């Protein structure tokens, strides 16, 4: 399921989004691969080894982008995330 969400997310990757506010200010942003894990709440799965590494500021190996690629390339599977006791907090219905 998470990989399926990632594949849908790829449809909006690197597209520039602009939102105009009432006071004529303009907010611009772009979706990036490195934002995916946080946007869907994977950082909340604190009892999963790869997420612990991602959340560890001293870790140099697991980055948000590398996690994105690991999910995309099926190196990390849904079952690993589903094993977290915190998974119900992010589970999409």
Key traits:
93 residues, alpha+beta, 5 helices
Q: Could you tell me the radius of gyration in angstroms?
A: 15 Å
Shape, please? elongated
Note the beta-strand portion: 5-15%
Largest sheet: 2 strands, antiparallel
The chain-level mean pLDDT equals 90
Pick out the low-confidence regions: none
Please give the count of helices: 5
Distance between the termini: 10 Å
Helix-strand category:
alpha+beta
Question: Which range best describes the helical content: under 10%, 10-25%, 25-40%, 40-55%, 55-70% or over 70%?
Answer: 25-40%
Adjacency order of strands in the biggest sheet: 1-2
* H/E element sequence: HEEHHHH
- Strand tally: 2
Explain what this protein looks like in three dimensions:
With 93 residues, this protein is of the alpha+beta class. The chain contains 5 helices and 2 strands; from the N terminus they run H-E-E-H-H-H-H. The chain has helices at 2-9, 36-39, 49-55, 64-72, 78-82; strands spanning 16-20, 26-30. It has a two-stranded antiparallel ribbon with strand order 1-2. The chain is elongated, with a radius of gyration of 15 Å. The mean pLDDT is 90.
How are the secondary structure elements laid out?
Layout: H1 2-9, E1 16-20, E2 26-30, H2 36-39, H3 49-55, H4 64-72, H5 78-82
Antiparallel strand pairs: 1-2
């Amino acid at each position: 399921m998470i990989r399926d969400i990632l594949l849908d997310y790829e449809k909006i990757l690197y597209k520039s989004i602009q939102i105009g506010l009432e006071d004529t200010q303009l907010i611009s942003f772009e979706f990036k691969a490195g934002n995916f894990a946080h946007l869907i709440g994977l950082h909340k799965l604190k009892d999963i080894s790869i997420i612990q590494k991602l959340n560890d500021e001293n870790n140099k190996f697991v980055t948000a982008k590398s996690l994105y690629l690991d999910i995309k390339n099926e190196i990390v599977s849904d079952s690993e995330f589903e094993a977290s006791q915190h998974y119900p907090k992010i589970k999409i219905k």
